[in-house]
Design brief:
- The chain is of the alpha/beta class.
- It folds into two domains: 3-141 and 268-319, D-Maltodextrin-Binding Protein, domain 2 (3-Layer(aba) Sandwich); 142-265 and 333-350, D-Maltodextrin-Binding Protein, domain 2.
- It is built from twelve helices and ten strands.
- Strands 1, 2, 3, 4, 5, 6, 7, 8, 9 and 10 form a ten-stranded mixed sheet that branches.
- Strand 1, helix 2 (49-63) and strand 2 (66-71) form a beta-alpha-beta unit.
Length: 354
């Protein structure tokens, strides 16, 4: 076969590959569409599809910009999309990353994969919830809580702390999401930063020794408690509130309150533009939209009950906030620095979980 034929076959293969991706758009449960244009924006989002999709659809209707969305799967929450962004760094496909937590966003920032953008909508946010150079913004937080069987929620023996997950009287009757992904991995890294390696490792070893049930996601934890298969579990307020408002016999406990308590961990969603994004103008437009009071109001009043961080949002929040209870005092950047060490330890301890 001569060189002309070989080159032609290579060109055809490349064209087919490009057409397949453009036609498929984003996989794994995402919205798909035809070839990308300037009026498209490719979004990777780790917030549950049932909560994020209505927001993105509203943006599409209001702006005329088509959103092509790749949703994360529950079993690899956040980490899966972060890994894809890193793998695609040489040729980005994602324009905007809507993360459901903050530490993996900080990891991407450290790798130089986020584009600085000083959003007019982000100016009102407290400096705790945004980077100094505009590479990321935090909004719509959730709390890490215990969802407890109502029959166990009162009295001196009721669970009040994350340490109760390691109490032998609850052996085999408590649950967590696999601590390698999502907000459970974020929580773990925050504990490593707050307590130090040895105390954090001891905590997770005690959980394992107590036969803690390691499930595929925070939603699964909430469901197992609400159906009575677990006495209580560690989850997020959005998944917990779904069960509470379904009328299930469960109650939210905000852990580690009191003067000497660790405090309840609050984790924001984050939004950032990927460096080298194919559609930077549309990405900036979407980022401004997500930081608007309208969006945080909708996320707060909707089933996910997110906690607004925009001071211009004035709505009644159905869960506790950092202003109403003792919040864990955590340095997210320090926690991001512990990520690899915490992940390596937890992988060894919990890799065989569900």
């Amino acid at each position: 076969m001569n060189a002309v034929h070989v080159n032609m076959r290579v060109l055809i293969a490349l064209a087919i590959g490009a057409a397949v991706w453009m036609e498929a758009g984003c996989s794994d449960g995402s919205k798909t569409g035809a070839a990308s244009s300037r009026s498209d924006v490719v979004v990777y989002t780790a917030l549950d599809q049932e909560f994020s999709e209505p927001i993105l659809e509203d943006f599409q209707k209001a702006s005329g910009v088509r959103t092509r969305t790749k949703y994360d799967v529950e079993s690899t929450k956040t980490v899966g999309l972060t890994s894809e962004i890193i793998a695609e760094a040489g040729r980005p496909r994602c324009d905007l990353f809507w993360n459901n937590e903050i530490l993996n966003t900080l990891r991407l920032e450290k790798l130089g994969l986020l584009e600085a953008y000083r959003s007019p909508a982000g100016e009102v946010f407290d400096s705790r919830w945004k980077s100094a150079d505009g590479t990321w913004y935090g909004f719509a937080a959730r709390a890490r809580v215990l969802l407890v069987d109502k029959n166990l929620a009162d009295g001196a023996s009721a669970p009040r702390s994350i340490n109760d997950l390691a109490d032998s009287k609850w052996r085999g009757k408590v649950g967590i999401a696999k601590p390698l992904f999502g907000t459970t991995a974020t929580h773990a890294a925050c504990l490593f930063a707050y307590w130090g390696d040895e105390r954090a490792k001891d905590f997770f070893r005690r959980l394992k020794a107590n036969d803690v049930q390691v499930l595929g996601g925070n939603k699964r934890v909430a469901e197992e408690v609400s159906t009575g298969r677990l006495a209580f579990g560690l989850t997020d307020t959005d998944d917990a509130m779904v069960e509470v408002e379904r009328g299930m016999p469960v109650q939210i406990v905000y852990p580690d309150q009191g003067a000497d308590g660790l405090g309840t961990l609050f984790i924001p969603n984050t939004v950032s533009i990927i460096k080298g994004a194919p559609h930077p103008e549309a990405a900036r437009q979407l980022l401004d939209y997500l930081l608007s009071p309208k969006v945080e109001t909708a996320l707060s009043e909707g089933p996910s009950v997110q906690i607004p961080l925009n001071p211009n949002v004035h709505t009644k929040v159905r869960v506790a906030t950092p202003q109403t209870i003792r919040a864990m005092d955590v340095d997210f950047r320090a926690a991001a620095e512990t990520w690899d060490a915490a992940a390596n330890f937890l992988r060894d301890e919990f890799a065989t979980g569900e």
